[in-house]
Design brief:
Oligomer: single chain
Distance between the termini: 41 Å
Radius of gyration: 17 Å
Number of domains: 2
Organism: Paenibacillus spongiae
Largest sheet: none
Strand content: under 5%
Protein name: HEAT repeat domain-containing protein
Helix content: over 70%
Structural class: mainly alpha
Length: 185
């Protein structure tokens, strides 16, 4: 995809017409399952959209940036990770959740990115319980670590998840989180 085509896609991703926006979103998500050579053609605009007034745009931008981490030889994701973590606290919980559920994909880009994700998710897990949906946030974090482990089995990812689960004081939720990891045995 050349720069003009990438810009056209960005325009469609920002469309007020939800059908046009959704079509562009699904196409972009499909294309970014693999490395692409046009990531930087839209990277800065996606980063700006993390604070867009429309929550759909914030959600799309966060998910695409997570997918594009594997197409980021310059390592921009390291500078932009904090902005993504802010989206996991979005005032619209569905937007926050979409971002949170995509963060693990950054870890697919390499060991430094994986460590970034692990540290970010662990911190988010430890500090989310005062929030309205704290238990759901924790579940999504444990699921994200499981997804990362399934992509590339790494005992440090598994150990982090199990350690986090052990910090859960409510036995009901500890069992729920642990059930995610029983699938990996």
């Amino acid at each position: 995809m050349d720069h003009a085509a990438a810009q056209t896609m960005m325009d469609k991703l920002r469309s007020q017409d939800r059908e046009v926006q959704n079509e562009a979103y699904y196409a972009a998500m499909e294309q970014t399952k693999e490395q692409v050579d046009w990531a930087y053609d839209i990277w800065d605009e996606l980063k700006q959209d993390l604070t867009h007034p429309d929550n759909h745009n914030r959600s799309i931008a966060s998910q695409l940036l997570c997918n594009l981490a594997k197409s980021d030889p310059e390592g921009r994701i390291f500078d932009d990770f904090a902005a993504l973590m802010e989206v996991t606290k979005d005032k619209r919980f569905v937007t926050a959740r979409h971002c949170l559920q995509s963060l693990w994909k950054i870890g697919m880009a390499g060991q430094p990115q994986k460590q970034l994700v692990m540290n970010g998710l662990a911190d988010r897990y430890r500090n989310c319980m005062e929030e309205k949906n704290g238990t759901l946030i924790r579940f999504d974090i444990i699921q994200g670590l499981w997804n990362l482990y399934q992509y590339e089995p790494d005992e440090s990812v598994k150990q982090l998840a199990l350690d986090l689960i052990e910090t859960e004081e409510d036995i009901k939720y500890r069992k729920k989180y642990a059930a995610v990891w029983r699938k990996s045995k």
